[in-house]
Design goal:
Blueprint lengths: L8 H10 L6 E3 H8 L3 H13 L3 E5 L2 E4 L18 H4 L5 E2 L1 H7 L10 E6 L12 E6 L9 E6 L2 E6 L1 H10 L7 H11 L5 H11 L2 H14 L4 H10 L9 E2 L10 E2 L4 E2 L4 H6 L4
Parallel strand pairs: 5-6, 9-11
Antiparallel strand pairs: 1-3, 2-3, 4-5, 7-8, 10-11
């Protein structure tokens, strides 16, 4: 096994100083200020410490002190979300499949990608660990339905539990498809605030989301779900619309559920078993 190279000089001071944080994350500006040196000089030292396995680069200019056991042969994998607060500008929130991962609602999280909701397109930063998928939503969608989530002693914005479900039904392609969302509903059901789920649905105001959610609630046989489905049904739009695809990422086929005006382009038996096997 390759041991990391010895640490000396200003590297000792820097690593010792920032190792006391929880998590031990800092940026290049902080490093230059601590060392009382030029940013270019600090950048060279930081790059050297990364090569020598004393630091991990989360993203350009954002670093974390690696634990003592980390080496090139046994690298340290820091939290995928710990460094976000250092470089993501507000307003934003971690959303869709990444929010499902944070809630521990996925059987198989997608590594190497992070989904972040933003009100306008942004430059995707070069990152060592993950590809960032920006999902652009209307600016008013960032005024509700998100909450602070602690990663050690830092917080990031994440969609709240109920908003996470609705966002995934709005754009199922960012959640692994409607079958995955159905499975999440089964796993998360006891932790959801059903009244807030209904209120969030009304506030979101996307009829396709209401129809998909109502249909799934009546298909999954969850405790108390019929009552919530009825509440959603009573608040539905009375305007005649074309049938909503249950999963817009799949072909336009299947029978139409007349109650919810949903074209069921998935095998109903697979929906019924979602999250239960």
């Amino acid at each position: 096994m390759n041991a990391r190279k010895s640490l000396d000089g200003r590297g000792v001071d820097l690593v010792t100083h920032f190792a006391q944080r929880d998590p031990p994350i800092f940026d290049a500006r902080e490093a230059a200020e601590f060392l009382a040196t030029d940013p270019e000089v600090a950048a060279k030292l930081l790059s050297n410490l990364v090569v020598r396995s004393w630091l991990i680069r989360h993203h350009k200019g954002v670093y974390e002190v690696a634990p003592l056991w980390a080496t090139r042969d046994l690298p340290f994998g820091p939290s995928r979300f710990a460094g976000l607060a250092k470089w993501v500008r507000e307003p934003y929130y971690v959303a869709f499949r990444s929010a499902l991962e944070i809630r521990d609602w996925l059987d198989h999280p997608v590594r190497g990608r992070i989904w972040i909701a933003v009100p306008a397109s942004r430059h995707v930063p070069s990152t060592v660990r993950d590809k960032v998928t920006w999902v652009v939503l209307r600016p008013d969608r960032f005024q509700w339905g998100r909450e602070r989530y602690w990663v050690s002693n830092q917080t990031i914005w994440v969609s709240d539990r109920e908003r996470t479900i609705l966002d995934c039904l709005h754009l199922p392609r960012h959640a692994g498809g409607v079958i995955e969302v159905a499975a999440v509903l089964v796993r998360a059901w006891t932790s959801l605030d059903r009244q807030q789920l209904a209120e969030h649905t009304d506030r979101l105001g996307i009829e396709a989301v209401r129809r998909r959610l109502g249909f799934l609630l009546e298909s999954l046989e969850l405790p108390g779900a019929p009552d919530l489905a009825m509440q959603l049904y009573e608040h539905r739009s009375r305007v005649r619309r074309s049938p909503t695809l249950l999963d817009p990422g799949l072909p336009v086929e299947g029978q139409i559920d007349g109650r919810w005006d949903v074209r069921v382009n998935l095998d109903p038996s697979i929906i019924a078993m979602a999250g239960r096997t």
